[in-house]
Amino acid sequence: MENSKKYSLRFILENYALYIIMALMILIIGMMSPKFFSLRVLRDILMQSSTRIIVAMGCMFILVSGSADLSGGRTVGLAAVVAGSLAQKSDYYIKFWPNLPEMPVIVPLIAAILIGLMVGLANGFSVAKLKVPSFLATLGWMMVAYGANCLYSNKPPNNSQPLGGFLKPFTDLGTASFLSVPYIIFIAIGVCIAVHILLTKTCLGREIFAAGSNSEAARVSGINVFKIQMITFAIAGACYGLAGCLEAARTGSATSTYGNGYEMDAIASCIVGGCSLTGGVGNVFGVFFGVLIFNVINYGLTFIGLSSYWQYVVKGLIIIFAVSIDMRKYHRND
Amino acid sequence: MKRTILFVLFAVLLLSAVSVVSAETPTAGVIWYNFADTFIQNARQTLLNVAKADGTVEIVDADSQNDIATQTNNINNFYTRGIDYMVLNNINTAAISEIVQTAKDEGVVTIFANTDSPSDEDFANYEGLYLVSSRAPQSGTIMGEAAVKYWNEHPEADRNGNGKMDYIMLLGLTWHYDTQVRAEYSVKAVEDAGIATNRIGGEVVAEYNRGQAQEKVAALLANFSDDIDIIFACNDDMALGAIEALKAGGFFKDEASFLPVCGVDATVVGCDALRDGTLLVTSLNNPVSLGKAIYKTMYLLENGKEVTTETLNMKGATVEGHRIWLDYTAITKENVDDAAYDITDTTF
Amino acid sequence: MQESEYILEMNHISKSFPGVKALDDVTFKVRRGVVHALMGENGAGKSTLMKCAFGLYHPNEGEIQFDGQPIRLVDTRDALNYGIAMIHQELQPIRTRSTMENVWVGRIPYRKMMGIHWVDDQKLYSDTKKLLDELEININPRTKAGSLSASHCQLLEIARAVSYDAKVIIMDEPTSSLTEAESELLFKIIKKLTDKGVAIIYISHKIDEILEIAQDVTIMRDGKIVGTWPAEALNTDVIVKRMVGREMSNRFPTKNHVPGEICLEIKNFSSANPHSFQNVSLSLHKGEILGIGGLVGAQRTELVESIFGLRRIKEGQLLLHGKETCISKPEDAISNNIALVTEDRRLSGIISKFSVMENIILANQTANPNVYKSGFFLDDRKRRADAEKYVDALSIKTPSIKTIIQYLSGGNQQKTVISRWMLIDPEILILDEPTRGIDVGAKYEIYCLMEQMAMEGKAIIMISSEMPELLGMSDRIAVMCEGRLSGVLDSKTATDEKIMFLASSYQYSMEE
């Protein structure tokens, strides 16, 4: 009886809803235009997903630890502008820092990650020490990050212009390929693997899950919940920073509007990918596919020439549908 | 009781402070639709710089954050605060008459800036109403005309040979006035020249965002690579995103793989692309002219003068009644240096 | 129509969950106007059966008859309409709303005016007042539910059940969070209800209590009915035997441990919270079990949580082996080999989404991460080995160590939490209500564990609200009342009365 249950249609539908929906989408789009089944499309989708995957990985840490994070998008924007301002050619005529020499690509990369880390630590401190509910704390820091970004980009001689004229090694980060696979995909997958190992194979990972699902029990068991929250927000911030840097590299430009709305996309992807808003649940594989499904929708619907207006409708419906099926898993005890 | 007295005292102090300020120099409340918009930021800076240097009118400004409700709040806040001029970079295009009526009731001289024009009835209704704006449709027309020119000069521009100009239209925000007129008038200019058109991909909304435009064009390119003849973008950022996607898709390698992309705004990075030979055309709505024209209008009114083309005396500006029009300048590789402007210039 | 002898009949009920057959052909009949006790170990299926009767679960097989008529319960609303009400194990009143709103929630009386339903506050108040007066429950209808004590919350639930004009009221461990005096009040109200012809289905682990109030007793084991007997025909031993399915000669293991030298001493402990404990001095010996008794609100939990570093103290000294030690957070306590099994298993004990294994090794993995690592990463084999050792040693009943802990019964969850702390090999183990809501068999096993640890020379502090447990397990009993230590008794000479006296009369004893 157990076995028959395991392979029943309902079981399959409930446990693999995400993958089934994605397969169906791909199949339908492919039927409408067979060109969809090509390596180029796969590469495009993975490339477009890559920065969002990194943002979603950061977001997942926060969700698993039982908080919410709204600062993701604006942190990406801030990091993008900071990284961009440090990666300009010396002969570019409105150089952000006119006297700055050309620097190796690692400098803007590290700077972006540090900026993200700082926003993350500010978030963590507000949540863990000042006890501001994470929803509000991160909303506040989101505004601060955006304001800081506007102030920074408005500095003469830039005056809020989009930053451009990046060094080739920098833009290569986002556009060049190795064995015709873009670096940016390697980076994203590398981040996924690192996050997976951290969450499942280290004490820290287990402590994050414990603190996320029952912080009181974790505290009694000797887990330093303050430390855990600081670390999760810091890691998330670093992910946002990295994503921001790559976003600037990929598009070859950066403005203060970058990253707007990424946090909501990331949260939605995490939930679709099986994270719980109440904390303590989440896995890298699910979130990876959560992001991918959104980008398959974005890309696929544009690919077949469907108007953006319809894309919003389809995207919204798929979120509701995917999550509602997923929820059935947890509510079948009657 | 103590608290009430304190409160009253505080209120009185506050009120007197406000009235002192307003008694000295006339104040203009300026409401921009979005500080994060590069163009708006530059116009805003110019206006602030000019006002600071001159001192006839004091500027207080507010950000509508791209939100109609916020704009409404900003308007009310300024009326409550007490201002002499209202400069409104209006996004609530459906409620122009109501806004004008309120301005009339409040007795505040109101200048609509860089937005949809109030109707003739509105101007008839309130004599303190002005408009300072670029002719928004021009930006669309410039794109369309450049496309026609390219089409006529390059017979190979019809890449699939269907006799139609197959285009992608990258929209900013669909409810945004600029997006509407740029999309409409660019295609109109092409069709007026007798060229049939075909839109690919329906409404492609990229929210004025470079990354989004890049992603959407990449997707469309994967399917319609051989059909696309031209890309119109409602701003330079989206045009540059499209160019990135085209580069990744094998375009812009040599002369033969050129594909015309048109933008608007003449941003610094946009002009860069013109020099590189990737962007076909962009157009400049000079934010410095806008900032200065707004200020000069208030300056003239404050000095009791009439606003005419002559009294205004600015290049590219024409006055029709209470409407002050600023021309867009077409910028191509040839005249790319005309796109430069200096927001720190305070002469007017 | 002929009146049936039974008000509620559940015939041949079966209910399965994925992997478990929770109820297997269960037939259960309740007479009118009696207290019918339903007993069994945790996991025997009592709660599942009652959830079927209340429409929360739908049985896979079998039928339910109410008043001789077969009925189908789609949801709890149906059950309430027939007159079946249930008072849940975990009471959750809407804390921010008044008592009267809580009683009538979903059925607030209203007046219709201009097409709008306006709350009829007057009727709401008077209806509630009448209801509470009838039951002789002394609560002001306007009091916020959040400020009611646990026992009053219980009474509020009963009032709500009565307000539905219930013919059958199911009470799932109503006294588990009540003191003895509060329980007495509850029994009085139960008596009043049965006099009116209401049948009460009473689930409890407290055998004394059941023998006191029940007329019929049904015992379940492993999802099946063992039998139904009149209460007069039963005694504690028989009930325990039938519940456990084996002989249980003794409720407590024999004391073989011998207290040694003092290992923990607290002097003038005062909480940072002025309403909590003040000026408490206590000592604890190696190999000793120190019981702490008192009524709800005596601040016993606050005291032990302060020793463990979970709460702040204003002043006082803590001496470990005669050396003053500062413990300001749980990590400090753990590194000094102190462990605490908290009172509320769900709130601060188990991590419900974690497996049994993860729950067992949680504290040790944090305190000694290197034990479970090979290289930089965690090694599952080492983790599993430790978890399996304790699952065996404490005979935790679980399908596997990878099973998510929330699917285990309360007793097995508790044993898991205890093994978590045994794993760090503490010198001092603090147990806060270690056997609350746990069936008799599991209780005995936990007592044996305590005895065994005391034999090994570990010092144990046990907070308990159950007199027999305090008297049966402790060497000494410290009794607290309203945040003060009102006395320490030697368990050889202590009695129920002495403890109750100290627990309820701090003021009195001070005046003496």
Overall number of domains of chain B: 2
Counting DSSP E segments of at least 2 residues, the number of strands of chain C comes to 24
- How many domains is the backbone of chain C divided into? 2
Measured distance between first and last alpha carbons of chain C: 66 Å
Total beta strand runs of chain B:
14
Question: Layout of helices and strands, plus pairs?
Answer:
The complex is a heterotrimer of chains A (334), B (348) and C (512).
Chain A: H1 2-6, H2 9-15, H3 17-32, H4 39-64, H5 72-85, H6 106-128, H7 134-153, H8 168-175, E1 177-178, E2 181-182, H9 183-201, H10 203-213, H11 215-220, H12 225-251, H13 262-272, H14 284-303, H15 308-328
Helix pairs in contact in A: 3-14, 4-9, 4-12, 4-13, 4-14, 5-6, 5-7, 5-12, 5-13, 6-7, 6-12, 8-12, 9-10, 10-12, 13-14, 14-15
Chain B: H1 2-24, E1 27-32, H2 38-54, E2 58-63, H3 68-81, E3 85-88, H4 96-106, E4 109-113, H5 120-125, E5 129-134, H6 136-153, E6 165-171, H7 177-192, E7 197-199, E8 204-205, H8 210-224, E9 230-233, H9 236-248, E10 261-262, H10 268-276, E11 282-284, H11 287-302, H12 309-312, E12 317-320, E13 323-326, E14 329-331
Parallel strand pairs in B: 1-2, 1-3, 3-4, 4-5, 5-13, 6-7, 6-8, 6-9, 9-10
Antiparallel strand pairs in B: 11-14, 12-13
Helix pairs in contact in B: 2-11, 6-7, 8-9
Chain C: E1 6-17, E2 20-31, E3 35-40, H1 46-53, E4 61-66, E5 69-71, H2 76-82, E6 84-87, H3 99-104, E7 110-113, E8 116-119, H4 121-134, H5 150-163, E9 168-172, H6 180-195, E10 199-203, H7 207-213, E11 216-221, E12 224-230, H8 236-244, E13 262-271, E14 280-285, E15 289-294, H9 300-307, E16 313-320, E17 323-324, H10 330-335, E18 338-341, H11 345-348, H12 356-367, E19 373-374, E20 377-378, H13 380-393, H14 410-422, E21 428-432, H15 440-455, E22 459-463, H16 467-473, E23 476-481, E24 484-490, H17 496-504, H18 506-511
Helix pairs in contact in C: 12-13, 12-14
Q: What would a concise description of this structure say?
A:
The complex is a heterotrimer of chains A (334), B (348) and C (512). Chain A has 334 residues and is an all-alpha fold. Chain A has 15 helices and two strands.
